[in-house]
Amino acid sequence: MQLVMVGVTAPSHVYPGLGLITELVARGHRVTYVVGDRLADLVAPTGAEVVTHPSTMPAADEHWPEDLGEAMQVFLDDAIRALPVAVGIDRPDAVLYDIGGFAGRTAAHHWGVPAVQLSTAYVAWEGMAEEMMEFNEALRASPSGEKYYATLRAWLDENGMDIDADEFTGTPPSCVVLIPRVLQPNAERVADRYVFAGPCVDPARRTGWKPEPGDDRPLVYVALGTSYTERPDIYRACIDGLAGDYRVVLATGKVDPADLGELPQGVTAARTQPQPDVLEHASVFVSHAGMGSAAESLWFGVPTVLVPQAVDQSTNAGMLAAIGAGVQPGEPWDAPTLRAAVDAACGKAERVRELRDEVRAGGGIERAADAVERLCARG
Predict the structure, then answer these.
(1) How high is the pLDDT of residue 271?
(2) pLDDT per residue over 130-188, tens digit each?
(3) DSSP readout, 292-312?
(4) Fewer CB under 10 Å: which end of the chain, C or N?
(5) What span, in angstroms and rounded, lies between the C-alpha atoms of 340 and 28?
(6) What is the average pLDDT across 14-38?
(7) Which residues form the Erythromycin biosynthesis protein CIII-like C-terminal domain (predicted)?
């Protein structure tokens, strides 16, 4: 098959699907991947043909809007910019698109071909619209929400899509879900047309990293994702609370490691770390509970200490704590608090190994690729 994949120009949205795209290419499908130009090098190793557009998404060192309507507008504006590039590609057999890659569903309508969403977050469940009605009405009434919905309605009308805006963004015709089912709220009420494959951890992200030999202390990995990483206070608290009894590997994102001062023996820090490799060796993961990191913590069987920063992270943190996979300490997140939480998380190792086995039984890359082939062929 010839497939077009429309992504979102944010690493947290791209990483979860790279293993799947690589597998589809290996199976002989021709995949064209549409993404913002700055992430072309991230996608290229999959073997997909990369078609780029100038993205308006915030770069790694830029700030996301705190207002929800404004943040939603960022995704929509980028989709509007991506659509002309997408429809300029030869008509494919089907379209794959990220949960925020709205241009993909619109392009599929333009071509009259099947569209399959690849969801990197939890999906809608039966009754969700009714349960969220009060929240959504308040959002629509806000200045930013009013602008967002007006822009979306105009764009859908311009492209001949007579569909409710919330249905367009939240209810895909078919979907392969790339998160563990145990992290899906109200999973028992999710429609059967949504296929849960779970994490598709890309083998190409593995670098062979290993901790320095000769140190048997438990290893704690500290990372807050790619967007909300300006928390030197958390990094310093982990150093002060854990050094000595634990080895600590920090991914500091937007924070210069030099700003953390002198690091004790057994503590290493860099702006980025090879996360799958580090998790392979970690005993505890101090995490922001972004969905990608939450899913990977379960895939590798690593208990979490949860310090959510924004967007869906509080929901994800609550799910991890509820299933026995994590500890969510109260603030302030100082050295004694985080030390106590890490100690407690170590006691969850057996439960998290059980969850790891359950998550891996979901099928991962193979199940996701099988589902994409079936859904695209069925239409």
Answers:
(1) 94
(2) 998 898 899 999 999 999 999 999 999 999 999 999 999 989 989 999 999 999 989 99
(3) HHHHHHHHTT--EEE---STT
(4) C
(5) 50
(6) 96
(7) 245-347
List the one residue out of 202, 180, 205 whose CA is nearest residue 190. 180
Two structure tokens written together for 304? 């979490």
Find all residues with CB under 8 Å of 40, minimum gap 6, and list them.
50, 52
**In this model, does residue 61 exceed pLDDT 70?**
no
Residues 6+ apart with CB under 8 A from 118: 5, 16, 17, 20, 96, 97, 98, 99, 175, 176, 178, 368
Burial track 224-257 (b if 16+ CB lie within 10 A, e otherwise)? bbbbbbebbebbbbbbebbbeebbbbbbbbbbeb
* φ, ψ of residue 121 in degrees (nearest 5): -145, 180
Rounded Cα distance, 279 and 365, in Å? 19
**Measured CA distances, 168 to 10, 99, 127, 171, 329 (Å):** 21, 11, 16, 6, 37
Edge to edge, what strands does the sheet with 219-223 contain?
267-270, 247-251, 219-223, 284-287, 304-306, 326-327
Which residue, among 163, 179, 291, has the nearest Cα to 227 in the 3D structure?
291
- Residue 34 CA to residue 16 CA, distance in Å, equals 16
Q: Looking at residue 56, what is its pLDDT?
A: 85
The rounded distance, in Å, linking the Cα atoms of 369 and 24 is 6
Rounded to 5°, angle at Cα 311 from 289 and 371:
70
Tell me how far apart the alpha carbons of residues 284 and 298 are, in angstroms, rounded to a whole number. Answer: 11
